[in-house]
Amino acid sequence: MTRSLWIDEKGRATSGGIGESMLALIRELYPxxxxxxxxxxxxTVARLSEIVPLQVTEVPSGSRVFDWTxxxxxxVEEAYIETADGRRVVDMKDSNLHVVGYSVPVEAExxxxxxxxxxxxxxxxxxxxxxxxxxxxxxxGFCLTDRVLQSLAEGRYRVVIRSRxxxxxxxxxxxVHPGETAEEVLVFAHDCHPSLANDNxxxxxxxxxxxxxxxxxxxxxxxxxxxxxxxxxxxxWLATNESALHRIRHGLVLSLLGDKGxxxxxxxxxxxxxxxxxxxxxxxxxxxxxxKVDFLPWGxxxxxxxxxxxxxxxxxxxxxxxGEFPEYHTSADNPDFLSAESLAESWLACLKVLEALDGDxxxxxxxxxxxPQLGRRGLYRSTGGHQDVPERQLALLWVLNQSDGxxxxxxxxxxxxxxxxxxxxxxxxxxxAGLLTPAG
Amino acid sequence: MTRSLWIDEKGRATSGGIGESMLALIRELYPxxxxxxxxxxxxTVARLSEIVPLQVTEVPSGSRVFDWTxxxxxxVEEAYIETADGRRVVDMKDSNLHVVGYSVPVEAExxxxxxxxxxxxxxxxxxxxxxxxxxxxxxxGFCLTDRVLQSLAEGRYRVVIRSRxxxxxxxxxxxVHPGETAEEVLVFAHDCHPSLANDNxxxxxxxxxxxxxxxxxxxxxxxxxxxxxxxxxxxxWLATNESALHRIRHGLVLSLLGDKGxxxxxxxxxxxxxxxxxxxxxxxxxxxxxxKVDFLPWGxxxxxxxxxxxxxxxxxxxxxxxGEFPEYHTSADNPDFLSAESLAESWLACLKVLEALDGDxxxxxxxxxxxPQLGRRGLYRSTGGHQDVPERQLALLWVLNQSDGxxxxxxxxxxxxxxxxxxxxxxxxxxxAGLLTPAG
Amino acid sequence: MTRSLWIDEKGRATSGGIGESMLALIRELYPxxxxxxxxxxxxTVARLSEIVPLQVTEVPSGSRVFDWTxxxxxxVEEAYIETADGRRVVDMKDSNLHVVGYSVPVEAExxxxxxxxxxxxxxxxxxxxxxxxxxxxxxxGFCLTDRVLQSLAEGRYRVVIRSRxxxxxxxxxxxVHPGETAEEVLVFAHDCHPSLANDNxxxxxxxxxxxxxxxxxxxxxxxxxxxxxxxxxxxxWLATNESALHRIRHGLVLSLLGDKGxxxxxxxxxxxxxxxxxxxxxxxxxxxxxxKVDFLPWGxxxxxxxxxxxxxxxxxxxxxxxGEFPEYHTSADNPDFLSAESLAESWLACLKVLEALDGDxxxxxxxxxxxPQLGRRGLYRSTGGHQDVPERQLALLWVLNQSDGxxxxxxxxxxxxxxxxxxxxxxxxxxxAGLLTPAG
Lengths: 440, 440, 440
Description:
Oligomer: homotrimer
Radius of gyration of chain A: 25 Å
Structural class of chain A: alpha/beta
Helix content of chain A: 25-40%
Largest interface: A-B, 27 and 37 residues
């Protein structure tokens, strides 16, 4: 039996609504101060759990994970810079980005010259606050707009960061949707960035809504959604789940999915895996303007999944890639930078990629000599001589022509340049008519 | 011994004459009312047999051919629409296209509103009559210019189609030119279209003239020319010749060869067969502007030859492909739409493709260490230092360089981008000089 | 241990000086009258031996070399054309190019009409003298500017060529730089052209200076530099060294390296050898504007190395290829046509190609699960969140990601599009940090 397609015309129509709902979730989570460990991460995971219940694992500080060690947990209560006369010129209350992530505690008076090496700004974007961290090198610092930095008078400043670095744990969260087989599709989104909307509240919103959608569907694959901090989080997850990694057949890293740029698919390390073919087929045929990007060991957690000792077939879907839009890693990456339409389109694209992956199968044409007579089975228009052929009939002909047991529906969709859905529906019609039977 | 090339400079010069002769044949056969069965088909085959004697096979109505059944034979005596006052507004006497192919008999009076669902016109081309058929669904209808359709007044009309649908047979015709081996090259042209010139009187004219040319030549392959109706005809031929199909090594479907567009080669289902390479090499090097088209299970009888249970390496040569010129399947596809030059060029191109296929062979360079000294054998100019190298000498160097038993003349022609004929002539010269010997 | 890179920043800075020095050598050797045998060839080889001592081999006239025979040795004392009143209108003293190479002796009076078939000029470039030879067909002739040719009055002329064709020998010269292995890289430059600067004094200058550079370096491969006449010289060298050819793994023909055009790499006969990949990687990433040219059995001695019975992986580096600049094989190809910058760049490009070939190796990432923590090893900047990644850090990530024992440094350089040197330096850093170990 051909697997039912998940997204019908009606499903597509609702995607407008889902975009607004994702944007609302992003606005809600935007003010939370996240880092690679700590309370902000737990608040975020708890909110996502209201949509789809996530299983949370806390990995203690000091745990060895591959070449790394889970760091102490970091939290920060307040952080500000005051002038000698008590005026706060920079205050974390205004933006989580003001304090460099993992800053060690400090409470001191110093001159502007002494303070300056600890201040980060963006001269090219004088009204934006940059995002900086120092996870593994004990340090402290403030990020501020260049306009404020330039306005600071010489003199003495009081500098306060009330942070805490102490043994605690790193928070992992996941949801598993069981399928017909134990073979898994991994969907990963990093959740450690503080008040940045595209990076990666957009990825969290799309991933949790993919999980919510699949929850009520029958699927061939088992789907595993993992939410974890970037780099140390995916490494921790890989190290603590090493014995189960062999089940993962395909995977996607999701991030930067709310800006108005075109969709970008970054291929797996091998570059020619099923997920690469499914993703690029769907994006190139159904989302005009999409771009394919080569693998590069730089970016997000695809770097870890694609390391030589892990080597999972994990691709990445973003809209504009990291570093290629000026708002990246600045205070300008806020909810107003995103659009509900982009989020909805990203969600739909991801779903269609998973649909193509899940619904791919090989069939055998039961009447392989010449074309079968589709007309008498009601699958073909009865008058002949027309100049063109409808896409639907062309799909029937393609599926019949290529279904020799060697070509899967995705192969056929790729060769015909017809959307996977059209090919898949044609296969379903042909199977109903007795002209197609599953291979093997 | 290198096989002699078929087409010399003199042969090329005569191709102008062959174009005129093919166009005359097309004008003669244009008025004949053909369909997938019936008397028009037999008249056409009889006329082609005057050029090269064809062996005719009649396959009875009702015969099971793969998934299909040979239909009843159809003939039509007259077909017209009359106004209440006896004025004939549409009459098959003016054009065979006026009656929908395989229309069932009708003799009735009806209102324009009742008649209208049976009328077919082309609003975008108000002076052209479209071509429509209804082979497998009992129906009747008329095709007419949109100008006439729009001029019809409300009122009652008398509708007459004196057709006959009765057990008879489907007509197949073929000619076999025996070669040195039993391995066959199939050349197929469909012959079922009524008064349409490019589709496919042009294909018939080119195919029968290729047969006439080869008749007096010694060839390596056996050449089988088949003339049959589209779809049901090729299916009938395949089904009734199934046990002999294994002899077919290469094939070409010929159609749409008289318009002024560039030559198009449509690759076989596999896309990388010897016929694909020979055809595209010849077209791309010798017929500038030619285009290569991917396989698509839509078009002409390459669909049947390329079905998974038949899977013969059959490509297709046309000029402008089906559906890509507005005159396609309309009364505007008449002899005036064709040119003798195009027909002659198509014939020459097909012949050169067959020549490259037939003349391909592997050789061994007998002096493979360094270049042999061509000068002392009279194969190389005696002065050195020139800025360029003549094509003929370059061909000698290419053949010597690549003739290691692994590369055939077609391989060498492809890599060097020199015409096959030039490479083939160089091989003949080198063999005469003792520098080349057949491989294997 | 990673092999040390040859060319440091300082080495690059000196390449200006090397260009001037090569141009001076070319000016010095330009007036020498060379041919495929004879005294000019020995003078040239003796001068090159002052830079790097060459081993000279004389192969006697009449020796059978593959399909060829070493010709008699040719020398010419004087050659001129005089008018009846004793005015010399063409005189070899003015340019070696005036006499057709290998002209037989002549001393005769004749009319202009009788003389004319022996005169060669370039009507399109009336002030340039062409270069012509007649090595294997006994003949004589003069090359002259078309302006002089057109000015010759009817009447009688005295024609004198005091040349000598007699048993002697053909001169081969080579230098071997021993490496860690007996596997060889062949560098070949033809040395038979008379007063032509780009063709091929430029190739001689670059080749001898590559030899001089490598002389003091430790290399993996053994490097064999061969200087010999074109065609008959490479054939003679191949025939007399046949039993040792199996040691040659890679090779380059060097010629036309001083003009201002972009660098061109002509691939080996197979087109996909290590030398092809190293050369094109270096040229395409470090020498913008470089072009890759397909193999063609026409050009220089790559034709002989790429003949089917020899079949060595020898590519070719030139700037503008033979025949593609108007000065080619004319008196306009003189030292003023060359630039020291072009010569220096050619030398550097060749050296970098050899460096990539010699330094290529496979490694294993010792921490292959996820990325190793580079920060604590001082290999990574300590602050996070930046928009971009420095090339050097990207190279570290690429080497770690791809070092699974299957990919060599050249593979990684090709895939990352980073210069080989940057990848090679990253590998050295990682090996020092214990993160990389040689494969196999």
